[in-house]
Amino acid sequence: MSAPRFPLYIPSKGRADSRLTSRALTEQGVRHFLVVEPQEVETYRRAAAGSLATVLPMDLSYKARYELCDELGMSRSTGPGPARNFIWDHAMSEGHAWHWVMDDNIQRFYRLHNNRKIQVLSPLFWRAMEDFVLRYDNIAMAGPQYEMFAPARSRLPPFVCNTRIYSCNLIRNDVPFRWRGRYNEDTILSLDMLKVGWCTVQFNAFLQKKRQTQEKGGGNTAEFYAHEGTAPKSEMLKAVHPDVTRLVWRFNRHHHYVDYRPFKGRPLRRRTGAVEADASAARLRLVARGD
Q1: For residue 122, is it within any domain?
Q2: Strands 168-172 and 98-102: what pairing?
Q3: Which of 8, 142, 181, 216 could, after both became Cys, cross-link 201 (CB 3.0–4.6 A)?
Q4: Is the dihedral of CA 157, 124, 164, 196 positive or negative?
Q5: Residue at 291 is within a domain
Q6: How many CB atoms lie within 10 A of CB 285?
Q7: How many Å apart are CA 13 and CA 93, to the nearest integer?
Q8: Are 27 and 125 in contact (CB under 8 A)?
Q9: 50, part of any domain
């Protein structure tokens, strides 16, 4: 089978007309959920008609009990964390062992192979990563690298262990964590997992091409990035994980730098009975624009 084993979710807000990630998944033939606030459900349903998306209303009570990691309360947007926690619980209620959750501004997905970035128009993209994580019993989260950080002429390993997972996350459902933080919740969750002994896997062999944080309207852009920039995002991470985080100025805006060296020596632990290779990963060599 080539279909993903686990459900795919896209929390979205104010982007019914664009739906970049949803369009990319539909092009791959992958069914998925668009998770939106109740007041936008009908707008998204009309816009997504004919696609492979199912629009799922978010339970707004998740906002009230979300751990924001600051003292500002509901005076500002909570960010996507509450929707992501709703998604986590929804996947568990449906009996799934893992789930995918991804940003709504991912334009396309690639396989990096023999120094070529090949756009993947096949569900095998997801199945190959799922098959990999299921061979080990100490991976909590995994996902594809950003396309811009994987130059085609560079020599990169197929995957890197024990670093942050951004924007497109495959998460093991039974780990004792949830999303937290108004900003930078993906890095916070990655560090929460790593600090108690779990592993993460970032795939360089599989890539996501994502719009930059402040480039696309809608989402969180209008609610805080457009006015405050990325400084609060970096400052929050420094406050939550000060032992491994410092603030830097790069590319004309504030960023955080995280030192992942304390986690680098941690090995993956192979699950008893796991196979060495998977047909889905091998078949991806043949997938080029859906062929």
Answers
A1: yes
A2: antiparallel
A3: 142
A4: negative
A5: no
A6: 11
A7: 23
A8: no
A9: yes
Domain count, the chain: 1
Tokens of 275: 């196979």
Partners of 55 in beta bridges: 34
Residue 115: Cβ-neighbour burial (10 angstroms; 0-12, 13-18, 19+)? exposed
> Distance between CA atoms of 238 and 251, rounded to whole angstroms?
19
**What's the domain range around 262?**
8-286
Instruction: Kindly report whether the global pTM for this prediction surpasses the value 0.85.
Output: yes
Could you identify the residue written with the tokens 């979300």? 66
Task: Sort 282 into a burial class: Cβ within 10 Å, 0-12 / 13-18 / 19+.
Answer: exposed
In-domain check, residue 199: yes
For residues 14 and 222, the answer to whether their CB atoms sit within 8 Å is yes
User: Given the structure tokens 């209620």, which residue do they identify?
Assistant: 93
Count Cβ neighbours within 10 Å for each residue of 158-185 and write b for 16 or more, e otherwise: ebebbbbbbbbbbbbeebebbbbbbbbb
Q: Tens of pLDDT along 112-144?
A: 998 899 999 999 999 999 999 999 999 999 999
Instruction: Give the CATH number for residue 47.
Output: 3.90.550.10
